[in-house]
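Morning, I've got a small favour to ask if you have a moment. I owe you a coffee for this, so here goes:
>
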Amino acid sequence: MKKIILLAVLLGSVGIVYAAGSHKGEHHTKGENSHWAAPRNAIEQLNPVPSNSHSISNGLKLFAELCSRCHGDQALGDGPDGSGLSVKPTNLKAMAGGHPDGDFAWKIKNGRGEMPAWEDDLEEKEIWHLVNYIQSLSEHSPKKKSNHKHGHD
């Protein structure tokens, strides 16, 4: 019974966080009030890759190679290729720490609109390295490593 209550509280908390819009991240969608959200089962997926300096460094390398042209070197959504897109790329630094790892992983895998799906190009572990890097950009994230220099502070 305690497990059921705990699960209900956790799921309710996730819903409240999203309903309240507690993060400052941008969401670029066609509808003014629509939100690009991963399916619940994806959002609840836990990151199997520990967020450490090795993973964050791998994620930074992947980000620089694959994502920075649109999302910008500092993940602010201001990359050189982003200005030509019909929907401005998301400011990932602002979203970091405001979404669960599974949400980011699903979006990286599946893409949407002009955001490419990376599922066929990246290994599962690489996607999670990217997630760890993105989450490390949050000033409030426990995953941010104070001794890790990733050039985005």
